[in-house]
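Hey all, sorry for the wall of text incoming. These are the two entities for the joint prediction.
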Amino acid sequence: MSNFSIAELSAAEISKLVTSKEVTAREVAEQAISRIDAHEKDIHAFNQITPDMALAAADALDEKIAGGATAVELGPLAGAPVAFKDNMNLVGTNTTCSSKMLESYQSTYTCTAVQHLLDANTLPLGKLNMDEFAFGSSTENSAFGPTKNPWNTDCVPGGSSGGSAAAVAAGMVCATLGSDTGGSIRQPGAFTGTVACKPTYGRVSRYGCVAFASSLDQIGPFTKTVEDNALILNAICGKDDMDATSVEREPEDFTAHLGDDITGMKIALPTDMLETQGLDPEIKASIYEAAEKLAAAGAEIGEISLPHAKYGLSAYYVVGPAEASSNLARFDGIRYGHRVEDAEDVLDLYMRSRAEGFGPETIRRIMIGTYALSAGYYDAYYGKAQKVRTVIKQDFDDAFKDFDIILTPTTPTTSFKFGSKTTDPYAMYLSDVFTVAVNLAGNVGLSIPVGCAKADNMPIGLQLIGDHFQEQKVFHVAHALEDIYKFHSVPANLK
Amino acid sequence: MSLSKEEVRHVALLARLGLDDDQIERLEGELNAILDHINQISQLDLDAVEPTTRSIPVVNAMREDVVRPGFDREMALLNAPDREDGAIVIPRIVGPGGGDQ
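and here's what came out:
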């Protein structure tokens, strides 16, 4: 079979073709490499392409299949082409975080989540562009140039995991990993029409993923289908001794309820959040339309209020930068990373290496965070923001006493044009207004595409929020929406 | 609350960022604009609320105290900007510039 297309097929479908010997893993890897070659100059999703690693993994898999390994032994992702955000270490690649600071940094160990996907017999195609150190919502903060949105290359793919989103939407690979601190998986997912999940805090080990804000960061998948997303999460989740915040849970299969009837599922619309200033009327309308369709499919729709969610962005822009300023203190030019050559003394080395190595948004975040943690301001900022987390979390806890899922927009607008928000940092931050509260409260959030806006023909994503560790319910309802809308993540001109 | 140019300079020193006058000036405007938004949370009366440090309670993540392999020296030094005899070379740390002012 030579007429298969990784742009049309899901990871699960490709895996079935490979393990049933209809195509070889090498054919899959070769097609991914040639698709990346064909589209990378327009999209720039990758910081590093690893054809040799993909082919070696493919040959190893083909050998296992020739040796009689069964589909069950090889797993449901065997042979799927994948790639990783460039803040995740993978031995044999550089890990740059799209920063000059780490431009030539070689991974010295492999990120746990990445290793889990390699162990699932996937084919690693490379490392994906991002906003520098994950600070941003458009990839315009990458030191190596922005990624383009496959739906319209004049528009941003979202960020910070913009390369992870674009690589899937361009049909270059079937699945990618991103990281989400305030929306960095879900927002680019919405902008590119992909399925994008930030799991519950603690669900996936962050070991080997360069830390941004340790009380918020989570790794999660980008895919074209809900089933693929659940399969990737099956593979990467779990307790890891190397990340003390990862949580031990009874094993569960996140695909268990895909395709089940949603009758009786209780879904809440946060009416106060839907009045947020700047929410695009088409996106607002799409929320009510989705709610109607879910009701027609048997779900019970209700209304709630999340009165403190509107303070989420303010709290996030204290907690995130404060923790980032601490995490990024390690980039001092001593053990690794950029170092000026003619330093007079160690303070001069720190000061100039960091000022040269970090880009403008990274410097802004470090400055906000350092200020918020500095003597005399801690209580007013970091302490207060942590109290805001408590009341936001309480709002969610109250809502989940009565409801299974909260339905919100993922973003207030569809993807925007390059340069349109670069002059006002806070205008860019507003892109995360619906997503940050989920990180502050630690819940699961997933963005699912439901069509394109009439105004600009760009994808609209809706966010499904679930209670802690309720990924199964989120995937269950997401699958129902997928069935209703039948949205295809790869635009027609790239198939 | 707002930041003066001198405070911006002080924060840059705390953060070990050697910024020039243009950068300090630009940051003064940008940081104050961002702080204006952040200050929304000061309207909230949360005196009686406990802070949340982590959304999921994890207490005492213990493991067995057993020896396991770590980095070998070559791997640990792989990315060192300057190295000699299995160690990282750094400028002097004692004397002027070696500590805080």
